[in-house]
């Protein structure tokens, strides 16, 4: 049983990060109440919000392992060992993500994960969830938060000595922080939106495409992707500009939509029986990058997850990064509790937390934006594919000193900022090695070794198993 602390704390937002955080805090003995705007998704059929499924990798899995939930969550995951690229003519090319099958990402259902986390928090740790409660205002000086009930319209005020804001990219708690004079924020909306479409399972069961892959139809300024679901379906996501000649705005009727799909994604049309209905009826989602600071106010409030640092989804790291926030905060809380018995200086703890996380969340935000260009544009480019093959040779020949940026982000816990820095060095090395190279087998391994030793070995050595 958790050790009883005196303090009760409030979490605003029972999405993925808020629900996991509630477990972490309750395990430390705090009395945790979580307020969530939506109804209880375990009792009512509602959209889980954002995407239907998502990819969990090492950072997210590690954060679940600490609370004993990784095995349960992964039991329904579909491992994705690499990218399967679909050309316009239907040709398939597979690009492995890791060094072998053991390095893979996992497609999981957002809704099921959220339900597992809430149920575990409630049943095992006594966390109290309050649904349909929309935080509309907060007074950080007094700790009063005003909630409006989404069904009855009734408002009530709840007082809290500690407020954890995990209410997502459009966070109401962050909006209150923004009123502080020292606040810095940049919130950049992507000019692309996204729309989800469904590939059903084969009648009688089974997947209609390779199940252990993340499918991509890269088309330059836009793309379609598909992630497998446990039931045998795939959820496709079309990323398309909002405005412009080829955009959500320009596809105004069925004929235009069908001709767009026939021209760009002919192989997928037979797999999407409800394309017309889904295209016009499913919502078009928006994506934003939020970089802000500070994430805390005195000893009262702190932000975690998308509320602190929303990023675009093209590295599959938003949730993973938010889960890592919980783990890092837990490490710091553990240290404070071990040294002092109870937290003597919350302001210091909150400040230390966000100052250590911010360089890393900024780095993954930038890498995610770069990866959008890579996924939609470069994965079909011969020069880029050659570089990827050379990178694989370097990974195989220099496993200690050359781990790709993708591998560092996805299959390790080294700080995102270090992965970013190392990726820049690697790009320089790859540029030099590939300048006049036509075939990967002609790679000059002696030169590669020299460059790696000169540029990279010491940086990798410094990492030395470091974690955020
Ligand atoms: C298309 C897409 C694909 C993605 N794919 C991946 C992926 O493959 N891997 C990955 O790691 N990440 C992925 N992400 C990112 C991931 O979805 C987010 O990083 C993650 O959901 C963040 O969790 P969160 O709990 O911080 O925020 P959210 O999931 O947004 O949860 C916030 C919660 O707060 C509630 N809330 C909001 N406002 C209020 C309020 N005023 N009062 C009370 N409650 C409130 C909301 O209802 C919600 O339940 C993807 C995102 C998108 C859009």
Summarize the structure.
Helices cover 39% and strands 22% of the residues. With 468 residues, the protein is α/β, with parallel strands linked by helices.
Radius of gyration: 23 Å
Q: Structural class, from helix and strand content?
A: alpha/beta
**Roughly what fraction of the amino acids lie in strands?**
15-25%
The strand line-up of the biggest sheet is 8-2-1-12-20-19
Give unreliable regions as ranges.
Answer: none
**What does the average pLDDT come to?**
95
CATH fold type of the largest domain: FAD/NAD(P)-binding domain
Structure description:
By secondary structure, the protein is an alpha/beta fold. It has three domains: 238 residues, FAD/NAD(P)-binding domain; 91 residues, no CATH class; 83 residues, no CATH class. 39% of the residues lie in helices and 22% in strands. The protein is built from 15 helices and 20 strands. A six-stranded mixed β-sheet has the order 8-2-1-12-20-19. Strands 6-5-15-16-17-14 form a six-stranded mixed β-sheet, covered by helices on one side. A three-stranded antiparallel β-sheet has the order 3-7-4. The longest helix has 31 residues. The model has no long low-confidence stretch (mean pLDDT 95).
């Amino acid at each position: 049983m958790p050790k009883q602390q005196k303090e009760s704390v409030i979490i605003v937002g029972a999405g993925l990060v808020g629900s996991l955080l509630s477990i972490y805090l309750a395990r430390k003995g705090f009395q945790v109440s979580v307020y969530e705007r939506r109804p209880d998704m375990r009792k009512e059929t509602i959209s889980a919000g954002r995407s239907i499924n998502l990819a969990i990798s090492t950072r997210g899995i590690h954060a679940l392992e600490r609370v004993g939930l990784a095995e349960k969550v992964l039991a329904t995951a579909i491992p994705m060992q690499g990218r399967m690229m679909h050309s316009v003519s239907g040709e398939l090319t597979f690009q492995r993500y890791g060094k072998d099958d053991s390095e893979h990402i996992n497609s999981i259902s957002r809704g099921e994960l959220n339900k597992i986390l809430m149920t575990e928090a409630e049943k095992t740790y006594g966390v109290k969830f309050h649904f349909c409660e929309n935080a509309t205002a907060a007074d950080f000086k007094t700790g009063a938060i005003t909630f409006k009930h989404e069904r009855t319209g009734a408002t009530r005020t709840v007082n809290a000595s500690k407020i954890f804001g995990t209410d997502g990219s459009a966070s109401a708690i962050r909006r209150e922080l923004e009123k502080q004079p020292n606040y810095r924020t940049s919130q950049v909306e992507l000019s692309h939106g996204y729309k989800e479409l469904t590939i059903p399972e084969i009648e009688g069961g089974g997947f209609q495409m390779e199940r252990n892959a993340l499918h991509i139809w890269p088309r330059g300024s836009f793309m379609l992707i598909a992630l497998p679901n446990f039931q045998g379906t795939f959820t496709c996501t079309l990323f398309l500009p909002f405005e412009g000649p080829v955009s959500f705005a320009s596809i105004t009727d069925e004929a235009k939509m069908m001709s767009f799909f026939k021209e760009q994604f002919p192989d997928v049309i037979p797999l999407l029986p409800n394309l017309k209905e889904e295209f016009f009826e499913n919502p078009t989602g928006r994506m934003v990058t939020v970089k802000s600071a500070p994430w805390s106010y005195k000893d009262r409030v702190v932000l975690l997850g998308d509320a602190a640092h929303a990023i675009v989804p093209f590295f599959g790291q938003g949730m993973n990064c938010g889960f890592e926030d919980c783990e890092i905060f837990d490490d710091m809380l553990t240290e404070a509790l071990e040294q002092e018995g109870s937290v003597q200086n919350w302001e210091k703890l909150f400040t230390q937390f966000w100052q250590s996380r911010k360089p890393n969340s900024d780095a993954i935000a930038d890498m995610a934006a770069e990866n959008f260009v890579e996924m939609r544009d470069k994965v079909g480019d011969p020069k880029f594919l050659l570089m990827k093959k050379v990178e694989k040779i370097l990974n195989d020949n220099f496993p200690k000193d050359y781990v790709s940026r993708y591998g560092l982000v996805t299959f390790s816990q080294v700080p995102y900022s270090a992965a970013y820095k190392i990726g820049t060095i690697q790009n320089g090395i790859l540029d030099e090695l590939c300048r006049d190279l036509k075939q990967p087998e002609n790679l000059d391994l002696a030169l590669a070794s020299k460059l790696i030793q000169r540029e990279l070995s010491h940086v990798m050595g410094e990492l030395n198993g470091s974690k955020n």
